[in-house]
Every structure is written in C-alpha cells, then in structure tokens.
Amino acid sequence: MKAPADQSAAQPPVRVIVEPPITLGQFVKLAGLAATGGDAKRLVGSGLVMLNGQVDRRRGHRLSPGDIVEVQGQTAQAVVGPRRGTGEGRC
Hints:
alpha+beta, 5 strands, Structural Genomics Hypothetical 15.5 Kd Protein In mrcA-pckA Intergenic Region, Chain A, 5-stranded mixed beta sheet, 91 residues
C-alpha cells in the first residue's frame, strides 16, 4: 500500500505588493494573515508571527523588501510595488 502524499509540504509565500514603509502589524492585516487590525495585534503580541523564520513580537517593526512573514502556516512576502505617479517599481 502506498503512503499518502505529505500535504504539509511548504507552499511558496504569497507575494504582497506594498508601498514602504509598512509595519509588521499592518502587513499581517494587508496580506490577509489576520482578519482585522486587532487580530493582527493579538497575533504579533502572542508570538504567533514569524519574520524571516524568527518569532517577532514587534508590531511596529518596519519591513524590508523581500521579508517573509508566517502566521499559523500561511506565508506572505513583502514585495515593493510601483511608486505612485511614476509607474516604475523599485528593487
């Protein structure tokens, strides 16, 4: 009998376009990792949010492009979008 496929395999992070500066708490909400800002605050404060593989309780921490945030198995990556009015992105 064949063993069932491992369904817990890591999914690539969802890429979320942001306009810096954005804080960890704001990003958790924007990325849909929390339903409300209050939920985001509780998740971060409870130590349930990981930033680049490390637990981070600093809700006001400013994210950098490429940062990866994980909440209860869901991951999202901060990607810088075009600046307003220029139509150009930034790396």
